[in-house]
Design the sequence.
């Protein structure tokens, strides 16, 4: 395509986990750099594949923008010499000087330059600015120095603009750009010459590279499902696994393997987790969700018999390990494992896991809760969880079942880790939900009480996630997690338990934890209801509102949102604002009287009174709010609210104050 | 299919291949180490600016991984083939893939992949970025660009390529267990398997590591080696000091296998070994 810039950074294998995010990061980085350099262009597309990052910039004009810059020179009091020097170096005359705030300035216009002269800078800056979660330096022989940071060593850079090859030496990685790339590492390793993006993508396809991450992902998803369906099976599709597998192949080939019958006795969670974590295989099930003795997998090259044998053999070895752990683990009771938890550090300042368990006990009430707390961390000491930490909780449930614990206890042991992330479901059992709440609240109280807070993007103890989970348990669990006590009671009881164990917490811990939770709650609600933080702030007027009743607060914000979407909202808001203004100006004590007992002579006020009475009965009726608001506004137009007669004035204020309070209680401060 | 390569043939091929590619062929470190990384030819020589290309077999001891010779793939003693290329040349992945061919891999019928695995050795204060190399789903090699060793940033980035020799052999010979690997390539009555050579060693050492090793003696040894290391450093005898550090680390691994080290103590033992390793590396760079 004419006026198209195509860049490709071919490196050694990019970690699969980084690829998806790199697509948007690359686009943001290059767009910023193009703009900074005055480039004029239409559109940027970015692609990340197993070994390459590709950028296509469409309609990139051959000249960059002319730009203007106000350049500051010497002070007006400076010597003539200095001023002349300033003019001379900028090729200007004294009549061009502009005087502002005691300094001389010059308007400098920078003529646009040929884009080809800027491309080398663009490439260098892209390498320096592309963010990687983890990156490395490597040795550049020709310069006898280390390279700039990149995710893995860069091996070639392709650069074509408007069908012509741009050859420039990129110093930070010691590579000269060219119009050359390479195909699939094993299937088509040869050099390929490229003329433009269309040529690039079709040649890559011919050379066994599927460039587009999302197309490749979709292809894998579809092919595996079809292959499974052909055998009457379903695929347990796991988004993270799909992303990872997509990032591991330049071109996907889909196959099915078999699981030895002897391993089908293992719990299905063990089977699928071992396959996923160690081998990146997909679990296949029968339509009734029972594990089938097959797995789906993706390879980078076409399959062969030897290869299938290899895949099956590796799985046999892995599952033999799993079977060994399972057998060894089930010979020991969970109580015995739990006893070893006094040796496991929770945090150096906060004692062992055994101590954490003791604290959680202090806020538990039922027999089942105590049992779950006693056993819920025991599986951390098993060999299975030692080998595959993802199985924590899951193994606890399985082993608890084997030792005939109550069904509810078994489920709650697994559930107490939930919700694991924003997309994970909540516990189903109340015991599970409560123990989950205890565990997370204990963590939050301990860390915040020790003045350990998340900073910026760093949250090594996942405190934000703990807070988010607590909020979800409080707001969304079908049942009351607090069970009659206040949130503050839980926090202070935990603080006492910490202090009994000799852990000194900050004395403001209660306030700090409540504030931290409130802040996270605001973010959570804004996100969930898709509203701005200002709306949340109007509804949550103080910390107590949230801590008093989380569920009611969510409903309140939901109502406020509906109210704001009404066409009449502007007049409702206007009425509230005027009332607030009136009441603020006259902040003397307002008499607490019942609205029904007030007697008015003015028709406007009688109308408002009747409507406020209705609103008291039905505070969630938007029609009444609309009517009362317009009645208030017309009262303002026709009546002197701030009447000189104090008796009339007080009655007016009392009525408006009641209106204001109903709105504040049910919607917030508008 | 091609003739099965014996365990020793695989080693011969690698020795020849890397010698032809400019590596000096060294011999194993003659003290117990957990990995080829602990050989001074890796740890110490990875630091500093001078070129260093080396390859060697290293027997590794990981007391905790013993299974009394009952697990087909897990043993407390096994062999690594270790390659260090310093600086990493421009084509180390290609060199590695060629080495697989030289050993006898037919890459047209296998799925070889580089799967992210950033490597870290907390006891040595070493870390790097790289991959584990998978062949048909089995990890056969660890491939790492060192970024730091002994807590010191590498001024020239070395690449470490560590082959799991038993893994490669089980793969090439299509056997399920390490113990079934054909060691000498004979198919007659003179055939020796890995099990013939090492099964008893494995069984007896598993007992020693887990059940019999004298805890008090090992605790004393750990302290002795630690003190000796510090003393030797004071004499600026870096290589002997480093050897004491490696020995202390092995004592710790044995104590760990004996199950006498609590989780809290564990961290402090690792920190002590790391402190020694750091001091040795620091002294190495400075002398």
Sequence:
């Amino acid at each position: 395509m004419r006026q198209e810039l195509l860049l490709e950074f071919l490196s050694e294998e990019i970690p699969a986990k980084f690829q998806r995010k790199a697509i948007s990061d690359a686009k943001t980085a290059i767009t910023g750099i193009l703009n900074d350099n005055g480039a004029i262009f239409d559109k940027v597309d970015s692609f990340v594949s197993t070994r390459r990052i590709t950028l296509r910039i469409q309609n990139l004009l051959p000249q960059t923008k002319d730009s203007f810059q106000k350049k500051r020179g010497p002070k007006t009091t400076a010597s003539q010499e200095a001023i002349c020097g300033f003019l001379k170096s900028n090729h200007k005359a004294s009549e061009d000087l502009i005087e502002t705030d005691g300094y001389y300035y010059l308007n400098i216009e920078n003529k646009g330059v040929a884009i080809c002269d800027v491309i080398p800078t663009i490439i260098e800056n892209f390498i320096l600015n592309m963010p990687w979660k983890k990156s490395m330096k490597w040795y550049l022989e020709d310069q006898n120095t280390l390279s700039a940071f990149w995710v893995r060593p860069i091996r070639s850079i392709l650069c074509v603009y408007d069908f012509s090859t741009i050859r420039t030496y990129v110093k930070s990685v010691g590579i000269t750009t060219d119009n050359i790339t390479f195909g699939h590492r094993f299937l088509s390793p040869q050099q390929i010459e490229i003329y433009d993006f269309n040529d690039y993508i079709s040649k890559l396809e011919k050379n066994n590279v599927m460039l587009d991450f999302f197309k490749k992902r979709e292809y894998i998803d579809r092919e595996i499902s079809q292959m499974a369906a052909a055998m009457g099976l379903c695929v347990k599709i796991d988004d993270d696994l799909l992303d990872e597998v997509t990032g591991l192949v330049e071109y996907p080939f889909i196959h099915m393997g078999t699981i030895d019958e002897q391993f089908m006795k293992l719990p299905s969670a063990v089977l699928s987790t071992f396959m996923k974590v160690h081998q990146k295989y997909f679990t296949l099930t029968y339509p009734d969700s029972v594990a089938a003795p097959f797995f789906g997998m993706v390879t980078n090259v076409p399959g062969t018999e030897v290869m299938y044998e290899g895949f099956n053999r590796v799985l046999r070895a892995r599952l033999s390990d799993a079977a060994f752990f399972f057998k060894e683990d089930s010979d020991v009771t969970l109580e015995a494992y739990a006893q070893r938890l006094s040796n496991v550090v929770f945090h150096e300042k906060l004692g062992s896991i055994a101590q954490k368990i003791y604290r959680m006990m202090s806020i538990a009430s039922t027999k089942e809760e105590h049992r779950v707390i006693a056993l819920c961390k025991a599986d951390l000491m098993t060999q299975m969880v030692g080998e595959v930490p993802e199985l924590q909780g899951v193994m606890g449930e399985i082993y608890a079942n084997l030792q005939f614990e109550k069904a509810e206890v078994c489920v709650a042991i697994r559930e107490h880790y939930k919700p694991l992330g924003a997309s994970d479901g909540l516990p189903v059992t109340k015991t599970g939900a409560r123990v989950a709440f205890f565990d997370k609240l204990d963590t939050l109280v301990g860390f915040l009480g020790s003045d350990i807070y998340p900073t910026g993007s760093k949250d090594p103890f996942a405190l934000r996630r703990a807070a988010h989970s607590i909020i979800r348990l409080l707001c969304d669990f079908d049942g009351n997690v607090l069970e009659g006590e206040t949130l503050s009671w839980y926090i202070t009881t935990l603080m006492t338990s910490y202090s009994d164990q000799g852990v000194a917490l900050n004395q403001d811990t209660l306030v700090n934890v409540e504030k931290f939770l409130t802040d996270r709650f605001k973010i959570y609600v804004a996100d969930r209801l898709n509203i701005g933080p200002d709306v949340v702030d109007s509804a949550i007027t103080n910390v107590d509102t949230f801590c008093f009743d989380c569920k009611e607060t969510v409903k309140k914000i939901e109502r406020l949102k509906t109210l704001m979407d009404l066409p009449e909202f502007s007049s409702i808001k206007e009425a509230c604002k005027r009332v607030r203004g009136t009441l603020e100006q006259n902040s003397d004590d307002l008499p607490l009287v019942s609205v029904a007992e007030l007697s008015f002579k003015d028709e406007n006020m009688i109308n408002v009174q009747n409507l406020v009475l209705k609103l008291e009965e039905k505070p969630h009726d938007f029609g009444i709010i609309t009517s009362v608001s317009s009645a208030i506004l017309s009262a303002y137009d026709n009546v002197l609210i701030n009447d000189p007669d104090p008796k009339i004035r007080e009655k007016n204020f009392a009525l408006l104050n009641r209106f204001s309070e109903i709105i504040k209680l049910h919607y917030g401060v508008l | 299919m091609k003739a099965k390569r014996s365990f020793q043939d695989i080693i011969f091929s690698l020795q020849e291949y890397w010698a032809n590619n400019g590596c000096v062929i060294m011999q194993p470190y003659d003290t117990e180490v957990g990995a080829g990384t602990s050989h001074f030819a890796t740890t110490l020589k990875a630091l500093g600016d001078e070129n260093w290309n080396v390859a060697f077999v290293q027997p590794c001891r990981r007391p905790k991984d013993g299974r009394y010779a009952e697990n087909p793939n897990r043993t407390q003693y096994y062999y690594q083939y270790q390659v260090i290329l310093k600086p990493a040349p421009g084509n180390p992945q290609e060199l590695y893939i060629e080495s697989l061919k030289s050993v006898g891999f037919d890459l047209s019928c296998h799925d070889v992949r580089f799967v992210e695995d950033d490597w870290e050795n907390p006891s040595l204060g070493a870390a790097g970025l790289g991959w584990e190399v998978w062949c048909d789903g089995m990890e056969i090699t660890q491939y790492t660009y060192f970024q730091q060793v002994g807590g010191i940033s590498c001024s020239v980035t070395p690449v470490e390529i560590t082959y799991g020799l038993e893994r490669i052999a089980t793969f090439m010979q299509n056997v399920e267990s390490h113990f079934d690997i054909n060691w000498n390539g004979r198919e007659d009555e003179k055939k020796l398997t890995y099990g013939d050579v090492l099964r008893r060693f494995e069984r007896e050492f598993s007992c020693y590591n887990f059940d019999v090793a004298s805890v008090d003696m090992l605790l004393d040894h750990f302290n002795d080696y630690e003190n000796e290391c510090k003393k030797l450093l004071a004499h600026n005898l870096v290589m002997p000091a480093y050897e004491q550090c490696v020995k202390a680390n092995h004592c710790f691994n044995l104590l760990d296998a004996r199950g006498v080290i609590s989780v809290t103590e564990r961290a402090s033992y690792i920190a002590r070994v790391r402190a020694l390793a750091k001091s040795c590396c620091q002294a190495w760079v400075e002398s």
Remarks:
- The interface with chain A takes residues 1, 71-74, 87-91, 93, 107, 109-116, 118, 128-129, 131, 135-138, 145, 147, 155-157, 171, 174, 176, 262-264, 267 of chain B (CB under 8 Å).
- Residues 7-207 of chain B form a domain with the BirA Bifunctional Protein; domain 2 fold (CATH 3.30.930.10).
